[in-house]
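Methods — Computational structure assignment.
A single polypeptide chain was analysed. Its primary sequence is given first, followed by the predicted tertiary structure written as structure tokens.
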Amino acid sequence: MKRKEVTMAQIDKVIPFILKWECGIAMKVGENLEEYFTRCRKRGWANDPDDKGGATMCGVTIGTYRAYCKKKGYPVPTALRLYNITWSEWRDVLKAMYWDKCLADRIESQGVANAIVDWYWNSGVYGIKNVQKVLGVVQDGIIGNKSVAAINSRSPLPLFGAIKEARIAYVNRIARNGNNKKFLAGWLNRINDLKYQ
């Protein structure tokens, strides 16, 4: 009997979702990712004083960008450098700081990988710990072999749904804190827009 070939999740399939929600515009039919990113950059800058992430370009915060530059051995970046981030560097930030840390290349379900990476993108280690809680594994905030094995051993559609439900509960919980209330509707819209692939 021939064994079914498993296709693993791919980073380029989560990018349109992240950019849509970070920049407020959808990818056009026939548009490639670099063209889409170039359009998104025109609307992707934010520096809301109530946002603890600080200056942000297409979802990459200045803190994440500093950590990325340090990891790569680059000079400490300025907000202006973040403002001018290139497509290849933005994609590499997503890959190095989020996709790879979730071991998403080893996740068999694209929908589950997207849900995990997007939660980590938005909530950092808290997103990972909450995914681990759903999985019933140690909540250490690090996706390792045991977390990936637990992800791939579960039926993907119910797991995808459980991750979304846990994320909705999480954002409702953190929205109780002062300035976060104004972000709740947007957070819920984003989570509800995650579709199983």
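Note: The domain at 11-193 is CATH 1.20.141.10 (Chitosanase, subunit A; domain 1).
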